[in-house]
Amino acid sequence: MTDTDKARDEIAVFTKKIGAVREEMAKVIVGQRAVVDGVLTCLLAGSHALLEGVPGLGKTLLVRTLAQTLGLESSRIQFTPDLMPADVIGTVVLDEGAQGGKVLEFRKGPIFSNLVLADEINRATPKTQSALLEAMQEHRVTVGRTTYTLAEPYFVLATQNPLEMEGTYPLPEAQLDRFFFKLDVPFPTRDELHTIVDRTTTDHQVEVQAVATQRDIIDMQALVRRVPAPRHVQDYAIRVLQATHPDAEEAPPLVKRFVRTGASPRGVQAMLLASKIGALFDGRFSASIDDVKAVAAPALRHRVLLSFEGEAEGVREDAIIAEIVERLTPSKA
């Protein structure tokens, strides 16, 4: 079997698995195709997602359904101002030993799960928010002198409410940068609301089946890393990233005027990995510039920091990224 035939077979298996996951999730999740694909992209990239939307849009339901569909263990952490780091990570307790007497035992917190829903993450104090940092970046947790490795795949999906800001603690830049994508959850259309009402106000019941396994997810994550990104595609992604910095040569006027700090190198890593996954979603084994353009907004919107003038003018990060993508001319292959 040639390398081309092998790649074709791997893409076929990948496409079939993703199609089955989408179909199974659609039994419960109404619409929200872009959000579902965004969440799947973050999972396949081995990273994490931040969802922003008003309450009641099914963010919690999405995580639970995804866990059931993939046969993964899930947990939910409701972030509140009085939540402590030990409530997230776990704590050491004094317990009865097998031979009698007292022993110190570490009892794992909800962070030890494949899929972790960090609900309303911006309601907890920065100290508690930071408890997630090591787990998100290193996929491990250190308690005292002991380090615990988290089971793969490991995925944190955090939510925050964009409207009610009283009593919240904005996520620090270092924490935001750990999220692969920031996804905006749109309000349902009228037809989608009809479907939601039909499913939730009647005796309609759906059994969600597991159509993939942990091994499947890990194999698909490995396949993503093998998808090539041509040099000119990589160069375009780098130029998009550089253009988010106000002192860059190719930065458009909107960036120079309204941006305080541009995106970090994690931004270009996110764009390229997401482009590879987008290519696989379309049945291709090579990332393109159009793939980069399609993922630029979710990959960069939380990494671009507005200046005081930008915030005062109500400038949206998406508008800035759209101008960058529109103005940059791809280099020749």
Describe the secondary-structure layout.
Layout: H1 3-26, H2 33-44, E1 49-52, H3 59-70, E2 74-78, H4 85-89, E3 90-96, E4 102-108, E5 115-119, H5 126-129, H6 133-138, E6 140-143, E7 146-149, E8 155-160, H7 173-176, E9 181-184, H8 190-200, H9 214-226, H10 231-242, H11 253-258, E10 259-261, H12 265-281, H13 289-300, E11 305-306, H14 308-313, H15 317-327
Parallel strand pairs: 1-8, 1-9, 2-5, 5-8
Antiparallel strand pairs: 3-4, 6-7, 10-11
Helix pairs in contact: 10-12, 10-13, 12-13, 13-15
Q: Helix coverage percent of residues?
A: 40-55%
CATH architecture of the largest domain: 3-Layer(aba) Sandwich
What is the level 1 CATH name of the largest domain? Answer: Alpha Beta
Task: Tell me the structural class.
Answer: alpha/beta
> Could you please say which CATH topology of the largest domain applies here?
Rossmann fold
End-to-end distance: 29 Å
List low-confidence stretches.
none
Q: What summary fits the major beta sheet?
A: 5 strands, parallel
What Rg is obtained from the alpha carbons, in whole angstroms? Answer: 21 Å
The number of helices is 15
Strand order of the largest sheet: 2-5-8-1-9
- Mean pLDDT across every amino acid position: 83
Number of domains: 2
Number of strands: 11
Along the chain, the helix and strand elements come as HHEHEHEEEHHEEEHEHHHHEHHEHH
CATH homology superfamily name of the largest domain: P-loop containing nucleotide triphosphate hydrolases
What would your notes on this structure say?
- Helices cover 47% and strands 15% of the residues.
- It is of the alpha/beta class.
- It has two domains: 1-226, Rossmann fold (3-Layer(aba) Sandwich); 227-333, Magnesium chelatase subunit I, C-Terminal domain (Helicase, Ruva Protein, domain 3).
- The protein has a five-stranded parallel sheet. A two-stranded antiparallel ribbon has the order 3-4.
- Helix 10 (231-242) runs parallel beside helix 13 and helix 12 (265-281) packs across helix 13.
- The protein starts with a helix and ends in a 6-residue tail after the last helix.
- The mean pLDDT is 83.
